[in-house]
Amino acid sequence: MIIKTAPKRRQTVLAGLCVLGLAVGLSACGDSSSSDDPASNQVEFSFLGMPENTTVEAVLQTIAAGSCATDLADYPLKTSSQPQASYDQQLQLLAGNDALPSLIFAANTPSLAIELHDGGYLVDIDQALTEVGLADAILPAAESVLRSLYGGDLFTLPAEFNIEGIWYNKAILAQHGIAQPTTWDELTAANQKLADAGVQPFAVAGSGGDGWNVTRLVGNHIFRSLGADAMRQVADGKAKLTDPEYLASAEAVAAWGQAGYFGPAPTAVDYATAMNTFLTGQAAFYYMGSWALASFNDPTQNQIGDDNIGFLPFPNVTGGKGSAAEVPANAGMPLALSSASYDAGAKAWLGCLAQNYGTLALRDKGQITGFRVFDPVADLPALTTEVQDIIANAPSSVLWFEALFSAQATTTAQTNGGLLAEGSLSGADFMSIVQADLG
Amino acid sequence: MRQVLGDRKTIAVLLAPALICYSLIMLAPMVWSLGYTLFSGNPIRGFSFAGLANFDTLLHDPKSGQALLFTIKYAVTVTIGQVVLGYLLALLYVFQLKRSSGLIRTLVFFPVVLPTVAVSLLFQKLFAIVPQDGPVNSLMNLFGAESINWFGGGGRAFLVIALMDIWRSMGFYGVLLYAGLVDISDDVIESARLDGAGGWRLARTVVLPLSRPVLISALIFSINGTLKVFDSIYALTGGGPGAQTSPLTLHMYRTAFAYGDYGYGATIALSLTICCLLVTVAVFRGSRQDPTA
Questions:
Q1: C-beta atoms surrounding B78 within 10 Å
Q2: What are the CA-CA distances from residue B139 to residues A164, B134, B146 (Å)?
């Protein structure tokens, strides 16, 4: 069959339609967010939070609705959330696309935060606070921790200032005639006594990246055994995790795992479940940072009563070089401001945040931060006051197991921590796979 | 029409939209990714030329080796499960259920349309041990067995992953192979039956050879899909415990986006592409052999 051919003019029209279609198609793929509303001068102040930390977002909302409502009226808060386990990946993706939100958590891994700072992605907090007239808004102790963690620079805000240690259920210990342990051996004996009585000694999270809850025990055992600079020696290549004195600490925690002190399935327990286990009285001890005060002071979560919770500094290791007085301290998940979106709105937010965050977090959440508390808060919960006293009286502090590790070594340590607690990975194997990532 | 399609300009204009879109979306990132294999670094700290260092690392990286082995184990197990069960389902639809197979086909196909994350959460709960035993452990308790921490060991976690992915996709392969089986003429089947073939002999000598082309297609679909598995494992186990259920794709993702090493991540991606290519070529070559020879 012969089909009548189209005249040349029709071919041209056809070609034109195709090009038009392509142009329309491509334009439809483009950014549609450029349509501005001329009636509104509002510029959003965006915050990338994480579901594991609800305090920061709640305090930001309070700041926006409270005394700063007028100053921040043109800069409404827009929040989004990314789980902690994949937060660093998200930061890298956003930074790679030059799309970091105005306010972020400064990465799980300090080395990534340093990379972001070195790449010019983060605001210099020293200078920015001076510009808004609040150069003294960060407490010296918190600033010292931040600077030691991030290579001497200050580009983060201490939305938390935490000490870490072992919280215990006073009633369970009293019921089993256990005095507050002061050494690792005494703590091990207490665990055994509880286990023999059918009580789970420790609540711990070991699921996926939550295994940091276990590696903290390894790190602190190292600090108590070998002294406060033990992990710096590893980071500087002067010691290896596979050296016998380091292995001993991992083996000590693995032995707890093999004895079943962490319950039947630590690799299946996530952060929230471990917290719930302790706060419902199903475990006697719980290693955690003082950021957990927000949960301890919340009666809907805490079913054992806040006056039933005691704090035990990480105990000494007999014959060790470290001391229980060296409190593990950190700034939790510090905040950072993106330099790309540091405009008048972000500046206004920084001023309000530095002025109010310390007070509001303490007043509303019982959260101790590294910000100066400009308006003293009365009637604090007893636990919060106790932690404040420990912070005030601590002669020195130590960091944590992975603080000076690369992102890869951090992930390897934290994803294998659960296996250590389950007793299915030996201390030697754990240390050798982490050391392999450290080079 | 012949003159229209004989005109090079017209062909170019007709092809251009699809070609440009395809090039922008598929080819450009692939070439870009290939280029990354010769560099180290990431967009945050910048890139530096690394030559073939990434390939050298790949050859000596035990984690990549472990991830490759897991990927192959997963691909072989799940492909066999998907295609064999899919084929059995197709045979059931065509030769047993016949015209009344619609409802069963829909029910078995249903998991295919469910979001992967939803299915993963479902299986997490099914095999849970804390805070409460899931249905599987409860059932085991009922028969006197102790609860198992299914996600606490690589082997156990692999079983759950394989079970989930086979359950999730066997309905798709059932429908795909069903389409091939219904193409076999009734006359051929009838003739074979008249010649005395029945049951297993009919399946082996008539149905299987005639459905070979669609079986090969299903095999290629499945092996390529399973070699590139990511979402279901990421959502179910996150590659854990440790890295015991990490396939190459997850290792690549972590290397590039969590550890900030785009170059090495791209090198792992290239090795995965080569794996897929080799397997596909091998399946094609194998399928060219005449089964009746």
A1: 26
A2: 41, 9, 10
Q: B258 is in which domain, residue-wise?
A: 53-288
CB within 8 Å: A407 and B4: no
The Cα angle at residue A27 between residues A24 and A32, in degrees rounded to 5? 135
List the 403-432 stretch of A: residues with Cβ below 8 A of B.
Answer: 406-408, 411-412, 415-416, 418-419, 422, 424-425
Q: Strand (E) positions, A147-190?
A: 162-169
- CATH number, domain with residue B69: 1.10.3720.10
B221, amino acid identity: F
Work out the minimum CA distance from A206 to partner chain B, whole angstroms: 9
pLDDT in tens, A273-332: 999 999 999 999 999 999 898 899 889 999 999 899 999 999 999 999 999 989 999 888
DSSP class of residue A371? B
Residue B246 lies in a domain: yes
Query: Measuring CA to CA, how many Å separate B150 from each of A34, A272, A275, B75?
Result: 49, 20, 22, 20
Check if the beta carbon of residue A256 is closer than 8 Å to that of residue A37. Answer: no
* B19 falls within a domain: no
Provide the phi-psi class of B199: left if phi over 0, else alpha when psi is between -120 and 50, else beta: left
- For A250-288, letters b (16+ CB in 10 Å) and e give bbbbbebbeebbbbebbbbbbbeebbbbbbebbbbbbbb
| CA nearest neighbour of A110 among A405, A398, A436, A411 | A405
Of A5, A269, A436, the CB nearest to B130: A269
Q: Could you give phi then psi for residue A167, rounded to 5 degrees?
A: -90, 145
Evaluated on CA atoms A290, A291, A293, A296, the torsion sign reads: negative
The half-sphere exposure of A188 on its side-chain side, counting CA atoms within 13 A, is 16
CB A176 within 8 A of CB A285: no
The structural domains of chain A, ordered by start, are: 45-156+332-369 (3.40.190.10), 163-329+399-438 (3.40.190.10)
Instruction: Give the count of alpha carbons within 13 A of A217, CB side only.
Output: 30
How many Å apart are CA B123 and CA A146, to the nearest integer?
Answer: 41
pLDDT at A29: 42
> DSSP class of residue B65?
H
Residue B289's pLDDT band, with cuts at 50, 70 and 90, is low
Domain count, chain B: 1
Q: Closest Cα partner for A211 from B238, B285, B235?
A: B238
Chain B from 22 to 81: CB within 8 A of any A CB? 42-46, 62
Return the residue of A nearest to B127 by Cα: A268
**pTM for the whole thing?**
0.84
B280 within a domain of the structure (yes/no):
yes
Q: φ and ψ at B282, to 5 degrees?
A: -60, -40
Q: pLDDT tens digit string along A81-99? A: 999 878 988 998 899 888 9
Q: CA A284, A286, A287 angle in degrees (round to 5)? A: 150
Residue B187 amino acid letter: D
Taking contacts as CB-CB distances below 8 angstroms, the residues of chain B near A265 are 129-130, 149, 152
The answer to whether residues B101 and B95 touch, using CB atoms and an 8 Å cutoff, is: no
Other Cβ atoms less than 10 A from the Cβ of A215: the count is: 27
Contact A285, A186 (CB under 8 A): no
How is residue A243 written in tokens? Answer: 């050296």
B259 belongs to a structural domain:
yes
Helix/strand/coil for A374: coil
ipTM computed for the complex:
0.86
Average pLDDT of the segment spanning A404-412? 93
d(CA B220, CA B281): 9
